[in-house]
Amino acid sequence: MTFWKILWQKKSNISINQHKNSESNYRNNIIIQDFNYKNDKVPIFLSKNKKIDLYELEQLCDTVGWVRRPLKKVKTAIEHSFLTVSLFYKNNHQTKMIAFARATSDNTFNATIWDVVVHPEFQRKGLGKILIKEVITELRYSDINTITLFADPQVINFYKNLGFIPDPDGIKGMFWYPN
Question: Is CATH 3.40.630.30 the right assignment for the domain spanning 31-163?
Answer without folding.
Answer: yes
